Amino acid sequence: MAHPVQISSKEQFDSLLRSSTFVVADFYADWCGPCHAIAPAYEQLAAQLSRPNLITFTKINVDNQQDIAKAYGVTAMPTFIVFERSRVVNTIRGANPQKLTEVVRKLAAEASKSDSSAEAGESSAAGGAVWYGAAAPKGYDDISDQYDPKGVELLNRDSDFGLAKTLFDSSKPSSLDGKGKGKTGGAPDWIESDTDEQLMLFIPFQSRLKVHSLQITSLPPTDDEDDDETPMRPKTIQLYSNRSHVLGFDEADDIPAVQTVTLDAQDWDPKTGTAKVDLRFVKFQSVTSLVVFFVDGDGDSEKLRVDRIRIFGEAGEKREMGKLEKIGDEPGE
């Protein structure tokens, strides 16, 4: 029987927000009478509805974790906050068991639907549907098809594997059925780096976009004995916007990235091998191209592997291809 997770640090809570699709947080205090009154109902909901990596119930003592309470504007106890993919989607103030039960059961139904959709997505390629390694962010569209296939470039690609456009293939990665080995009898449907672990991907777009987030799928083999040859998942990623061409590796060292992302082991979905990368949306409001620099990986290998990339945001009017506009570049960049 699952019990609520007692939060002992902000780092622990942040980790749970990343690893669980839905998180329910009970902000309480030991001296709070209504908190004690509603605690049995909350415990019962946790026991009935908790699901690993999908729905996690937590308890946060506001006196011991004042920084977390302050971050979410908690001023009265009890307060229950529901998170979906780290974002607040519902807040219940006060000891109202009926309201709490209603909100949490509705959440559980939505979570079951989301989980079923994800499982269906894993086998949808045969029917021609787009495969997703994670749910799309609410309010934003999959704009991966806005990339210009004629202009996309990938530096340091091992020619024994896929092309740059392989990353935007809408089908389910074949490696999900083969422990990272991929399909036999055909070309690998993923890319790997060549001389070292770095990859430089240039993505020009057919329209001016607002880019909200990325999904990156990486499925290294799970049973290879030679760790030096087994490719790694990406760890550090640097993003550049509105460049007119692919950056050289030395060139990237001299140009400040618009955003640097570090992916940890818990960021990768264990079922689909996909990590969600939230961008600083204000920095990516008018984008005509992206450079994605995979700087290093999560181990000591000299190989890096990426199976799929999906882009989410808002598409604008199509522009004439040819000369890419550079927006907001500082002098000397």
TrEMBL record:
UniProt GO cellular component terms: cytoplasm
Domain PITH, residue spans: 132-331
Pfam families: PITH (PF06201), Thioredoxin (PF00085)
Swiss-Prot/TrEMBL keywords: Disulfide bond
Domain Thioredoxin: 1-109
Top-level taxon in the UniProt lineage: Eukaryota
Stored InterPro entries: Galactose-bd-like_sf, PITH_dom, PITH_dom_sf, Thioredoxin-like_sf, Thioredoxin_CS, Thioredoxin_domain
CDD domains for this protein: TRX_family
Keyword Transcription regulation: no
Family: Belongs to the thioredoxin family.
Protein name per UniProt: Thioredoxin
Naturally occurring in which organism (per UniProt): Aspergillus nanangensis
